Amino acid sequence: MTLSPHEDPFTPDDVETGMPDWHPEDPRYDPGRLSQIGRRASIIVPQPSRTSRFFKASELHGRPVPEREWLVEDLIPDRTVTMLSGDGGTGKSLLALQLTVAAATGGWWIGRRVKPGRAIYLSAEDDEDELHRRLADIVRAERGSLSDLEHLTIRSLAGEDALLAIETHVALAASSLLAELEAAAAAEQDVRVIVLDTLADLYPANENDRAKVRQFIGLLRGLALRLRTAVVLLGHPSLSGLMSGSGSSGSTAWNNSVRSRLYLERIADGEGPDRHEPDPDRRRLTTKKANYGRVGEEIMLTWRHGVFEPDAPEAGTGLDHKAASAKAERVFLKLLDTFTAQGRTVAPDPSPAYAPTKFEGHPDSEGVTARAFRYAMEALLSRGDLAIIEDGPPSKRRKTLARAGGSR
Question: Cα(69)–Cα(267) distance, rounded to whole angstroms?
Answer without folding.
Answer: 31
